[in-house]
Predict the structure.
Amino acid sequence: MLDIPPTENILSVKESEGLQKPDCNNDGIDVLDIADGLKELLRGKKMTLDALIQSSQSQLADILGIDGYIAKIICESAKSKASLVYTQE
């Protein structure tokens, strides 16, 4: 089972330890297992993890102007991560 540390632990990671802090904009996009370019695209469209969960694959493909298969990957990642994030709260 995948252990995801609480947000406050992730945000307190020091860059001097060789790790970078995640973007602290609280949109939930950082937890997704997708390419960084897709994360930037999602942020450019002001998408959040909650919005991704509520969107269908076809809606997401239309909003982002991407192929349906890529939208499916994003939606699946969002739903998978959301179930992990929300069960820890």
